[in-house]
TrEMBL record:
GO terms for molecular function: alpha,alpha-trehalose-phosphate synthase (UDP-forming) activity; trehalose-phosphatase activity. InterPro entries: Glyco_trans_20, HAD-like_sf, HAD-SF_hydro_IIB, HAD_sf, Trehalose_PPase. This is alpha,alpha-trehalose-phosphate synthase (UDP-forming). One of its GO terms (biological process) is trehalose biosynthetic process. Its EC number is 2.4.1.15. One of its GO terms (cellular component) is cytosol. Keywords: Glycosyltransferase, Phosphoprotein, Transferase.
Length: 864
């Protein structure tokens, strides 16, 4: 069986060969690649770097990359040193493997929680690869501290949870050295992925905010890498995110993925809004899939909350230890109703808000004292710092106050458990709790409610332990914050604003007094969802969407552009080529009847330049092209005819089409004609007042009045509000102009109303028909443009090849400006290249005219 070179590396490693992973040592050999500049996909200049040998590995492979490997490490205590490793069953990265299928091989790349001495790293790496198929990234301690405790926990994590660094105590001010550490660690992870990847075959799935720039490093190395990213934290609104100094770098890095996953639509919406406001990218929804077009690549957006591992939970529920613990708790809390909270001890989990609400419940309902207990399990915080200490101090003080105020002998209203619990012990608390409370002020997902639902469903053993009738439907109640990721999927929960203490108190009270039947209905609804949308379902769904998103990779031509974290890949149709000047000049010389259609703004002249005069070089070139009797040259523009007349007054033989083809003039001495007969423009009296209304209410928008059209432009308005207003205006105009002979269209920052049938394609049709009527069947057609309006011309001339308006042997050149998706087959990079190419054609014409003139003179001399 043939395998890719990188896959062979793994086989070599497991058979005993293992190079040094230490610093300065020999690196694991990577996939052989083509060096040099990135060019076309054509075989002799392969641009998208891939494996050097064709892979015939039948088994699909997924490389899962996370900050930490799903492993537990224990240093041996036998005195000989070394490490023992085992799977971390609680790790999501390990649990998701169940959803990928048995035919998918999984390789893990990540760091270890424990610091491994450099002298042991080689042995550890070999053991992990052979035994667990894990590739460890050994990060120097100082660098890891800056990366994780610095940038991740001081900058990204607070900001993504809506905490702005308004003072040095709140999250910490931006530190460029911490950002550099973040980038450096992401680069180390990328190197580790590159050591094992077979880029033509493998899928890569990157997890969470620790590795947000990793997609750029991988895409830069392998243009066609099949890459997914899932963000497990919230993504903040654009107003919060835009404060991040490296906001563009992170957005562009994420857009180097093929699929980006979020837990909720809110998180996805915030991300898309940031892409719109900061990068000018708009998204589209097609057949249920949301996507962004980014330099010809379609970046898909996935919205699906992660689930729990059903098998793991059910196996723990079956343990004898769990059963005995449930019996113990049943006896301990006999005659009392248990409310349960399970949270990390950090500032975003809202533990103190929950305690204040419970305190208020006991104040307002004295009858519940002695009957209701709040058990709060407080897990150690993942971060560190003064904020964690403040949360602990406030929690302890509040618990102490409540217990002193309402406690009595044998009854503590609040039971705070801040020591580590075994998993089965936590499960037992779920089983006996009548209601679970999650009052986090911001949380990416939070699976506590899911675990609670499954545990409340229980099993036969636990029914016996609780002395329940197995035939009676199970029941549960949830009070959840509306600011956590799992909230939208729990439609039967009581959703609360955790900052509103009164509302949380009312929710607690309602959860206690609601009827048994309603508790059962809510539980059944939740159990049905949670049990079918587990972690395996989530992983399988993500992989399916990633496969769909990468389906067209092979047939795309790719170019890598940009430096550093600004790198991106342009993906285009395989038939798209850069126009060779030599090729087109050669075709030009051997043809005798030529049609040339040229856009002006953005093609012959940069759009960014504000000028009242035409480009002098362009005018000279146009005049030289027009002098050739074999040529018919038309300039096609969206500008009005008055402006174009003034700009090109010196081009007497140049044909001009103004206002996207509504007005046409074959040369300077001819009168303007209209391509489409329009009786009058009375519809402007209907459309203009509507546009004025939207202009007044949309700061930064303007109306451009043309003879044939009205254009509402919102380029300088707020992007979101402008886009929203544009949609409303479009609907409004379509409604009031429904019976008028006009078309209402939206474009890049515009809404335009113009007579039906007016587009640049009309000019191309008009030119070809006119030439045919004069007996000039074109055998050479050149059309150049830079934006969407020019695509109509490209479509007309490309389809004309199969009709009777062109010579059967006609050479057709549809050329766009820049490398981007287009109906054109060719491109040139910019205005400079276009003018250089047109100069080549003009020089050929001058040479041809000169040759004809000299030949004519020789004939006259010979006759004399």
């Amino acid at each position: 069986m043939m395998v890719s070179r990188s896959y062979s590396n793994l086989l070599d490693l497991t058979s005993g060969y293992f190079p040094n992973f230490g610093q300065g040592g020999k690196k694991l050999s990577r996939v052989a690649t083509v060096t040099g500049a990135l060019t076309d996909l054509d075989d002799e200049n392969g641009n998208s770097v891939g494996s050097d040998a064709p892979s015939s590995v039948s088994q699909e492979r997924m490389i899962i990359v996370g900050n930490q490997l799903p492993l537990r490490a224990h240093q041996r205590s036998d005195g000989n040193g070394g490490w023992n490793f085992s799977w971390d069953e609680d790790s999501l990265l390990l649990q998701l493997k169940n959803g990928l299928g048995e035919d998918v091989e999984v390789i893990y790349v990540g760091s270890l929680k424990e610091e491994i001495d450099p002298s042991e790293q080689d042995d550890v790496a070999q053991t992990l690869l052979e035994t667990f198929k894990c590739v460890p990234a050994f990060i120097p301690p100082e660098l890891f501290s800056k990366f994780y405790h610095g940038f991740c926990k001081q900058h990204l994590w607070p900001l993504f949870h809506y905490m702005l660094p308004l003072s040095p105590d709140l999250g910490g001010r931006f530190d460029r050295s911490l950002w550099q550490a973040y980038v450096s660690v992401n680069k180390i992870f990328a190197d580790k992925v590159m050591e094992v990847i077979s880029p033509d075959d493998d899928f890569v799935w990157v997890h969470d905010y620790h590795l947000m720039v990793l997609p750029t490093f991988l895409r830069k190395r392998f243009n066609r890498v099949k890459l997914g990213f899932f963000l497990h934290s919230p993504f903040p609104s654009s107003e919060i995110y835009r404060t991040l100094p490296v906001r563009d770098e992170l957005l562009r890095a994420l857009l180097n993925s093929d699929l980006i996953g979020f837990h909720t639509f809110d998180y996805a919406r915030h991300f898309l809004s940031c892409c719109s406001r900061m990068l000018g990218l708009s998204y589209q929804s097609k057949r249920g899939y949301i996507g962004l077009e980014y330099y010809g690549r379609n970046v898909s957006i996935k919205i699906l909350p992660v689930g729990i591992h059903m098998g793991q939970l059910q196996s723990v529920l079956d343990l004898p230890d769990t059963e005995s613990k449930v019996s113990e708790l049943r006896d301990h809390f006999r005659g009392q109703i248990v409310l349960l909270g399970v949270d990390d001890m950090d500032i975003f989990k809202g533990i103190s808000l929950k305690l204040l609400a419970f305190e208020q419940l006991l104040i307002q309902h004295p009858d519940k004292r002695g009957k209701v207990v709040l058990v709060q399990i407080a897990n150690p915080a993942r971060g560190r710092g003064r904020d964690v200490q403040e949360v602990q101090s406030e929690t302890y003080a509040t618990v102490r106050r409540i217990n002193q105020s309402f406690g009595r002998r044998g009854y503590d209203p609040v039971v705070l458990i801040d020591t580590p619990l075994q998993f089965y012990e936590r499960i037992a608390y779920y089983v006996i709790a009548e209601c679970c409370l999650v009052t986090a002020v911001r949380d990416g997902m939070n699976l506590i409610p899911y675990e609670y639902i499954i545990c409340r469903q229980g099993n036969e053993k636990l029914d016996n332990a609780l002395r329940l009738n197995p035939s009676v439907p199970k029941k549960s109640m949830l009070v959840v914050s509306e600011f956590i990721g799992c909230s939208p999927s729990l439609s039967g929960a009581i959703r609360v604003n955790p900052w509103n203490i009164d509302a949380v108190t009312e929710a607690m009270d309602y959860a206690l007094i609601v009827s048994e039947a309603e508790k059962q209905l809510r539980h059944e609804k939740h159990y049905r969802y949670v049990s079918t949308h587990d972690v395996a379902y989530w992983a399988h769904s993500f992989l399916q969407d990633l496969e769909r998103a990468c389906r067209d990779h092979v047939r795309r031509r790719c170019w890598g552009i940009g430096f550093g974290l600004g790198f991106r890949v342009i993906a285009l149709d395989p038939n798209f080529r850069k126009l060779s000047v030599e090729h087109i000049v050669s075709a030009y010389k051997r043809t005798k009847s030529r049609a040339i259609l040229l856009d002006y703004d953005g093609t012959m002249m940069l759009q960014s330049l504000i000028s009242t005069t035409a480009n002098a070089d362009a005018v000279v070139i146009l005049n030289n092209l027009c002098k050739d009797p074999k040529n018919v040259v038309f300039l096609v523009s969206g500008k009005d005819r008055k402006t174009l007349t003034e700009l090109f007054s010196s081009c007497e033989k140049l044909g001009i089409a103004a206002e996207h083809g509504y007005f046409v003039r074959p040369n300077h001495d001819s009168d303007w004609e209209t391509c489409v007969a329009v009786p009058d423009f009375y519809w402007k009296q209907i459309a203009e007042p509507v546009m004025k209304l939207y202009t007044e209410t949309t700061d930064g928008s303007t109306i451009e009045t043309k003879e044939s059209a009205l254009v509402w432009n919102y380029q300088y308005a707020d992007p979101d509000f402008g886009s929203c207003q544009a949609k409303e205006l479009l609907d409004h105009l379509e409604s009031v102009l429904a019976n008028e002979p006009v078309s209402v269209k939206s474009g890049q920052h515009i809404v335009e109303v113009k007579p039906q049938g007016i587009n640049k394609g009309l000019v191309a049709e008009h030119l070809l028909v006119t030439m045919q009527q004069k007996g000039m069947l074109p055998d050479f057609v050149l059309c150049i443009g830079d934006d969407r309006s020019d695509e109509d011309m490209f479509e007309v001339i490309m389809s004309a090849r199969t009709g009777s308006s062109l010579s059967p042997v006609a050479e057709v050149f549809a050329c766009t400006v820049g490398q981007k998706p287009s109906k054109a087959k060719y491109y040139l990079e910019d205005t400079t290249e276009i003018l250089r190419m047109l100069q080549g054609l003009a020089s050929a014409s001058e040479q041809s005219i000169r040759s004809v003139s000299q030949a004519s003179q020789r004939v006259i001399i010979d006759r004399e």
